[in-house]
Amino acid sequence: MSTDRPGQLTPSQTVGPYLALGLPWPDGPDVVPEGTPGAVTIGGTVYDGAGEPVVDAMIETWQADPDGRFDHPDDPRGARTPAVEGFRGFGRAATDDRGRWSVRTVLPGALPVFDALPVFDGAADVREAPHIDVSVFARGLLDRLVTRIYLPGNAEANAADPLLSSVPAERRGTLVAVAEAPDRYRFDIRLRGDGETVFLQI
């Protein structure tokens, strides 16, 4: 920590609390348009280490479409029009005054292992289970936290997923959403403490 004037310290820099000043936008949570066939809502509550809701967090999501393709020219298999009209792959949602967030999207498809772990090197038939990549921004975090959402209806694919299977068995549940209805999934994010969500080093 540096000093600007004798006896005074500059504040440490974090990713908040400026989040509400322009980063969220009105349709940020809409990965697909309203009325999209097969659309689902995925959301939950962000909790701090004391179990209190975090009311000024921001959640970003990035995912493949149902065919396992990304709406991005850097997809290693080449750019392609998404399988779902209006799908953009990216979502951004701020938490509300109860720490809740949600996005409207479609369920992703499985993916080839692009950056295979050494044990899977050359194993062309190894695939990542369908998942959604998540970044968490909040007051007090020096950097974003990164995690994944896996889906509960994919037990066999989840068991074979290289990343999920590398997580200690007792903590894997923190990366799997809970189905509350056919079109709604809950994924709570716990920043610290009991039941802390598994976060990834990138």
UniProtKB/TrEMBL annotation:
Keyword field contains Protein transport: no
Annotated spans, Disordered:
67-86
The protein's matches in InterPro entries, at most eight in alphabetical order, are given as: Intradiol_dOase_C, Intradiol_dOase_core, Intradiol_RC_Dioxygenase, Protocat_dOase_a
Query: What is the top-level taxon of the source organism?
Result: Bacteria
Which ranges are annotated Basic and acidic residues under compositional bias?
67-78
What residue ranges are annotated as transmembrane?
A: none
Q: What's a Pfam family in this record?
A: Dioxygenase_C
Where in this chain does the record put each Intradiol ring-cleavage dioxygenases domain? 39-193
Keywords on record: Dioxygenase, Oxidoreductase
> A GO molecular function for this record?
ferric iron binding
| Family according to the record | Belongs to the intradiol ring-cleavage dioxygenase family.
Supply the name of the protein: Protocatechuate 3,4-dioxygenase alpha subunit
